[in-house]
């Protein structure tokens, strides 16, 4: 239920009928819940009569209730800037300003949450910074800001913000181990030094650099021995095609087939065993997480349950991976073992005396 507007008796001070009518209309709109319209009317009255300071309070309060936070903040600031403001009215205005800060910070936090859902992590980090500036004691928002920096790839900012959270958070906070893990991921690795060749020394005036040795050309044949002409030409024997020779079976392919089959079978068995163990662990975890008669879980803490769930998920993934690799290995090995032996090899001469080996 909204607080009533500050009522002002304008008639005794000789106010005009226009101002009196505006006051009545504004109060009526305020009582009816039309806060934005009431704020506009109260503000119009204030412009006609700046000495009616409760009217300015009413305008700011009406805009606040209408959700016009920026306008309400502006008018409350204008009211508090008056040096001789009534202490009671000043105290009421200060209380409303504190409430506005909370509301503005919550609106910024809502915007940051929407940016996170849209994977706009850099924008979310900036919005979290604005929300934290309005409510510095919200350490949960500091963690949200650090995580947004982290996911945006701004690791140095994420590292500093994680440290800020770990300093402010209680020592018994359940999320400290997870935050520490995220922080460690942001620690920068030392840069790798890359050796670069040294530039050649500059040539001094009047000094010549030593000449590089030039490789000697290959020795030419000595005259008189470069070509030898036989005294009698011997006719080469005609090339006769040789019959095809059966290529021996490759021992490498057979060994590879058996290795693929054996390795695949071992991986498949290992994967099945790991899946069975992980499934059993999952059932045990579910039993431990069942609440007792008082509605509380006593067999396992939240942190232990989280770590156990992550370990089970990891083992399930490894089990499925091993099973898949093993099945592929067995299939490949069986295919290799079922392949026919290699074909025959024929040696075919060419006109230039080159032998070509064909496999068919």
Features:
58% helix, 3-stranded antiparallel beta sheet, 11 helices, Serine Threonine Protein Phosphatase 5, Tetratricopeptide repeat, 4% strand, disordered C terminus, mainly alpha, 3 strands
Describe the structure.
The structure is a single chain. By secondary structure, this protein is mostly helical. Among the domains are: 17-85, Alpha Horseshoe (Serine Threonine Protein Phosphatase 5, Tetratricopeptide repeat); 118-185, Serine Threonine Protein Phosphatase 5, Tetratricopeptide repeat (Alpha Horseshoe), CATH 1.25.40; 242-288 and 302-360, no CATH class. It is built from eleven helices and three strands; from the N terminus they run αααααααααβααββ. A hairpin with a 5-residue loop joins strand 2 and strand 3 (355-359). Helix 1 runs antiparallel to helix 2 (35-48) and helix 2 (35-48) runs antiparallel to helix 3 (53-65). The longest helix is centred in the C-terminal third of the chain and has 38 residues, at 251-288. The protein is elongated and about 110 Å long.
